Amino acid sequence: MIEKKEVQHIANLARLRLSEEEEEAMTQHLGQMITYINKLKELDTTGVPPTVHAVEMPNVWREDTPCSGLSSSEVFQNSPAMQDNFFTVPKVVK
Amino acid sequence: MTEFEIIMGLEVHVQLLTSTKMFCSCSTTFGSPPNSQVCSICLGLPGTLPVVNKKAVELALKVAHALNCQVAEVTKFDRKNYFYPDLPKGYQISQFDQPILHSGHIMIPTPKEDKKIRITRAHMEEDAGKMIHQEGTPYSFIDLNRVGTPLLEIVSAPDIESPDEAYSYLKELKAILEYLEISDCNMQEGSLRCDVNLSIRPKGQKTMGTRTEIKNLNSFNFVRLAASYEAERQKQVVLRGGKIEQGTYLWDENEQKTKLMRSKEDAHDYRYFPEPDLGSFLISKDLQEKIHSQLPELPRIRSKRMQEEYKISEKDCAFLIEQKVVADYFEACLKKFSEPQELLNWMKGQVRTYLNEHDLAMVDFPIPPKNFIELLELLQKKTINRNAAKEIFEQMAKTGKRAKEFSQQKQKITDENELRQICQEVIKAVPQIAEDCRTNPKAMNALVGQLMKRSKGRADVDIARRIFGELIGE
After folding, report:
1. Cβ–Cβ of B52/A60 closer than 8 Å?
2. CB contact residues (below 8 A), chain B span 268-297, against chain A
3. CATH, domain B416-473, list 1.10.357, 1.10.1070, 1.10.10, 1.10.1200
4. Model-level pTM?
5. Which of B263, B268, B297, B422 is the most buried if burial means most Cβ atoms within 10 Å?
6. Contact B248/B265 with Cβ under 8 angstroms?
7. CA torsion sign, B175 to B179 to B180 to B182?
């Protein structure tokens, strides 16, 4: 089970704005999911190492060789606001 | 009066000296035009996947030995989730429960004796972008060139007991990182940044007090100032019967005080979880040994060796090894020059003054060791005197030319007859001083001063003094 307050907190962390109806629905859906996970938790996993990744692929890395990135027009293609090659956002400090 | 003790732990973020970023091949060059070193991975565009930079892992492993750390056999990355405009993905790839290094320590000098500061862990992560807040505009400006630059975060145990110890710890750590060539540690460019966790407790109390964090200090001096201020602030709160509230503070340089950035209620909930886009890393003994075998001599060991080899004091050694380039220069000169003390005096004197006056770092010092020892040899062989050597030093630094190009005109006058003539001229010019010499031996210095002026600093002082003595005595 999950409290509505927790749902509001999670929505806030994810920067989601939920209507009251959505909050209700989410509380119910998340509650069901948690019940399901709790069911899985009943399994005794003592001695089973935690799975970090579904596929075992250790040591995938690349050499330290530079490549050029995107052009300026590509960089700002999806940006709603920019100025003098900077992204601009509403001021985040006072 | 209750006595308090301070407990501090430091988190040091150091940018690793790689050519490319932690998870993509964009360049990490500092100072490029805004957003010119950015790709779809930096921007966190959907469908992109990070790939780890092997060099960054190797650099982190290089630290292991110097910080006496254990290397994790298996290490992995985790997501640290938060929204802020300097981080387009909405999460930072970091390491949570399996950091690459753990359980180390370094020794730091204190007034009494060397002290051990434990290193809890060191983990790899990516840097965020840079934000510029300009007055008079409703916007913040974002440059994402720094996004994804590899960082190593080195976390100390709460073993640091004073702002001075924090300063020593940082100095020691910086020297190690520079020696290992892991980072350029350029604090102006933000290659090394520090967060301080600090609490106080009445002396004798076993449990720790509530701690506060001071974030993003970019100078060792600020660390010392901010820690002193914060300790005093906490003390005042406790003495007035108040309670320390957990919180994150920033150091306000202008007002010289710590300022609350966010309280406990606003504390981040990072919701770490294993990074699904990256697999784990198994650090083999082979790789560790390969890196171990390439390690350079570390500062403390170098200091001991240099003290013995060149018979110089610990304090002078500390001056030399504080920056690797200075010690390297010193030792490069001594390959062909046999007077360490003389060289040391020059390094502490003329060279340091020159660098300060011209606001230069040692790497930019214009006289190469080979040319520098030519100058010292001229002095050693008494071809020129000390004053002339200092002048030639300035000219060499200015022009990049070699000592012998200037020494001709600066050659010492050692010829008795020539000197006698100048001495006579001096006595004629200032007879009163010469007269004084008969009763006051110190007046001789004034005569010598006149002589140097006339000879443009070239006269051999020892011979001249004898001649003066003879002339006046006559």
Report:
1. yes
2. 269, 271, 274, 276, 278-282
3. 1.10.10
4. 0.81
5. B422
6. no
7. positive
